[in-house]
């Protein structure tokens, strides 16, 4: 891991550590799921919140926001495809959560893996 990658990872973990419970624990779990599902992604701060990119200098592909709910979102740089079915041409790009159970953890990992291929 390069020194820039280490610095970025530290900034992300510091940002998560500064959050109040129970959000801190949930955000840490989401971060861990992302890093396990796509270990090649590089954590970084993007617009003040944790994000994950293909490299330290590339635009973020996935962001985490700590607003009224935790928001896992794909940026416009992530590969998108139309959802089809009842969602037609809409492209899923954001998911809100308040906690992380096993099923949600599995779905987050699937979403992350879909971004990195």
From TrEMBL:
It holds the Pfam family DUF1801. InterPro entries: YdhG-like. SUPFAM superfamilies: YdhG-like. It comes from the Bacteria. Residues 1-24 are annotated as: Disordered. Residues 23-114 form the YdhG-like domain. This is DUF1801 domain-containing protein. The lineage of its organism: Bacteria, Bacillati, Actinomycetota, Actinomycetes, Propionibacteriales.
């Amino acid at each position: 891991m390069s020194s820039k990658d280490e610095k970025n990872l530290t900034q992300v973990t510091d940002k998560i550590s500064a959050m109040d419970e129970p959000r801190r624990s949930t955000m840490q779990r989401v971060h861990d799921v992302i890093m396990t599902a796509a270990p090649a992604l590089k954590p970084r701060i993007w617009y003040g919140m944790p994000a994950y990119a293909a490299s330290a200098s590339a635009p973020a592909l996935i962001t985490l926001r700590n607003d009224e709910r935790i928001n896992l979102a794909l940026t416009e740089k992530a590969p998108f495809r139309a959802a089809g079915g009842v969602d037609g041409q809409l492209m899923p790009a954001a998911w809100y959560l308040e906690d992380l159970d096993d099923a949600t953890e599995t779905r987050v990992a699937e979403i992350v893996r879909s971004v990195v291929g």
